[in-house]
Amino acid sequence: MSADFIARLVGMVLFAVLGVYWGVYIGNITDAQTELYAVILGLVGALIGLVLTPFITTRPVRSLRALLGRVSSQTLLSGLAGLMAGLIIAALLAYPISLLPFPFGDVLPFIGVLLFSYLGVAVFVTRQHDIFSGLRFSLPGKSSEAKEEAKENNHTILLDTSVIIDGRIADIARTGFLVGTLLIPRFVLNELQYIADSADSLRRQRGRRGMEVLSELQKETKVPVRISDIDVEGVREVDDKLVILARQLRSPILTNDYNLNRVAELQGVSVLNVNELANAVKSVLLPGEPLVVVVIQEGKESGQGVGYLDDGTMVVIEDGRNRLSEEVTVIVTKVLQTAAGRMIFARLSERDN
Fold first, then answer.
1. How far apart are the C-alpha atoms of 46 and 58, rounded to whole Å?
2. How far apart are CA 108 and CA 299, in angstroms?
3. With 50 as the cut, is the pLDDT of residue 150 above it?
């Protein structure tokens, strides 16, 4: 049985008993039929308890658990420490404030408790990183261990499902440019397995490719790969879980998903985008530079031909339609950077005209 069902039963009984007592009380003071009032108000109380009990018991608790699940343990400890500090300050000031004339002596101590509690929580949560860093490095005999732990946390990179399926992450890890531990949460692995078991042949092929890439990453010795059972309660979407987990661990997310990239950046999470890296390492070509390319297809406009560089950059060649399947030398006329990547416009050189 679910917690909501049990809460409804308990609430129905309690509110029915309260309704009966209230009916008896009203019947006694009005000299009316006590039994009738007791039955009617008891049934009304049972109905109210059956309907409203989850909204005042289990559902607020569930919402509170989901909220606390999104907050890191460091933030919770900082808030608790700030609350204790604020209450201590308010207690120390309560007695001298209570000596003020009426009504200030009666009202201001309570206001001081609320004010100093809020200020304590706000200050400690805002400066939590500085406070915990100072505590780690100030404890005797623990500074080296704290430094290693901080180093490990700062060099943890969360992997998204899309970047595993993409496959380029294995080549990037093999080059040694990634420094730290690649962390793959269990819910990402479950999504990858779900794609690999899909009824759609294309999705199934992509999922199996992701499994093979993950196997290559685990065999790669330059970058350690760790699969963790860590999860985020109260959230169902994988992207939302990744963003929340990245905020809790203060780790970047490695992805090539544009939507996840935007959502993570809006929430202050660092993102390592493979597509942006690929665009950044492409060769820089300026207008007027010669370029050798093979014309492989016709362009959209009249007379255009299209070729591709080794890194996948599209080259649109003016008057290149008549040179299909030929290797030609072209002169770059314009370089256009788009959201999909870099596009080069060129014309045939005088030698190939």
1. 18
2. 78
3. no
